[in-house]
Amino acid sequence: FASSYPPYDPTDISGFSYETVVKRWPIILAGVVNFLHNKCHTLSLDLASLDGEEKVALQKKLTEGTGIIEKVSKLKYEMARDRALERIPEDGEANVELYNAELAGLEDSKRNTWFTAPWLFAECYLYRLLRAFFVLTEHWKSEDPFYEQKVNTFRQSGTSILHIATTMHELGSNRETVKADPEKLKVLFNEMIQMCLWGNATDLSLLTHLSQADIQHLQSVGKDAQVARQKFILKDDEEPVWKHIQTLKDGRVDFVLDNSGFELFTDLVFADFLVTYTPYVSKVVCHPKLIPWFVSDVTPPDFRDTFTALADPSFFPEDVTIAVESGMVNLKEMVSRWTSYLEQGVFSLSVPVDTPLGGNEASKPADFWTSSKPYWNMETEAPGAFETLRTSGLVIFKGDLNYRKLTGDVRWPAWTSFEEAIGPLAGKFPLLSLRTNKADVVVGVDKDVAEKLDASGEKWRVEGRYALVSFLPRSQS
Ligand code: F6P
Ligand code: MG
């Protein structure tokens, strides 16, 4: 399957893809260089106190660090000059051939430069290439250049996190009444799903233009904030999703995760709600990225460290503006419940198994999330990943990039149905996408609404203020 509409790419200088190549990627690459400089500087202070093998190893690490800095700087230089994308070097990790085959195809059609390549491909390629720079060293293999950024932003979400923990605690004291009251459950479900949706508004690759005040505003919770944001949800399938969830019995929900930090926290709260407060779900599986990805996406170490951070009272800055102590107690209670869920397998992280799950897929199922492939042909192109989701009671795709991959990141008219846009994947398993709009592609919106917004000059497709809740059930056949 392939759409007859062309992909978004930077040849359209009014699109967000153009702005991305011109402004956003250079900032992100400069951040990686900065990270490496700082790290090398700190490490070099230790040189004097070391000797023997340790000293030699550190010296090698510093040389390798300088090597990565040179590669990233060269990449940034070439990007600005619209040079060709180079092949991903054979680094022993996943998807090298996939990327290079796609690149060869683009070369044939002369779309293999930074300002001509399809946006979705080029952006995935960029993070995969960065990964190769690190993996091809001896001492930087496990380094995540975005790790500190993720942790620091998470720390700044303390106020919202403690608020939510307190809400969940209050809910806990009437757990049984809530469970038995369908009306109450539904109201809570709407709050939870919206919290999880807007949790996506704060990813770090967009933060190159959002202020701290903007972020806090996006994270604010509670009825009023949600009512105010309701009009920004341009497609709202909350009703049918809830109806669907009510048909599950001891069901499994899968989260194809997006960002670490506050968004992951809201995913876990939503997961906790489904398991603890509803009779419908008894297992939640989370699917992370196996390599640093789009700055803020969740990797397995991020997932693990989230639990440690939330359980540590000193993690948050002291000026969080809620009754800190009771908030902390509530948070602790919630996180210890999550930890026991992890231990019991109620919550789990889908990390690689060595044996490929059938089909002709040579790589691990999880590697699919860091390929550049749209999800249209998942069943044939990534049978391992497809098989893991096929039996799910509901697969929740979080965030913008997952949405771009679901719809192929092509120029669908905005009123195309979601079902048509996700191609052959439609109906294969119950599928929910929770996405705040951060890229041009949009489907499932009324024609007059889309046209009015396009004509208004408002950047409704890309600034993260609008959102889409899109659901499709499993087809009956
Ligand atoms: O457009 C902004 C952007 O960085 C896109 O490049 C990408 O699709 C998206 O945001 C990442 O957002 P999310 O974390 O929601 O997938
Ligand atoms: Mg992301």
Would you kindly provide a written description of the structure presented here, covering whatever features stand out?
With 477 residues, the protein is of the alpha/beta class. The chain has two domains: 16-145, Transcription Elongation Factor S-II, Chain A (Up-down Bundle), CATH 1.20.930; 150-472, Rossmann fold (3-Layer(aba) Sandwich), CATH 3.40.50. Helices cover 51% and strands 8% of the residues. The protein has 19 helices and seven strands. It has helices at 16-44, 52-80, 96-108, 119-135, 147-155, 158-173, 175-180, 182-198, 212-219, 223-230, 238-245, 262-277, 300-310, 324-344, 378-381, 383-390, 399-407, 418-421, 447-456; strands spanning 233-236, 251-256, 281-287, 347-349, 394-398, 431-436, 467-472. The protein has a seven-stranded mixed sheet with strand order 1-7-6-5-2-3-4. Helix 12 (262-277) links the parallel strand 2 and strand 3 (281-287). The two termini are 20 Å apart. The model is unreliable at 204-210 and 355-361 (pLDDT under 50). The structure holds 6-O-phosphono-beta-D-fructofuranose (F6P) and magnesium ion. Magnesium ion is lined by residues 203, 258-259, 294, 296-297, 399, 401. It is an enzyme of class 3 (hydrolase). GO terms for molecular function: fructose 6-phosphate aldolase activity; fructose-1-phosphatase activity; metal ion binding. This is Sugar phosphate phosphatase.
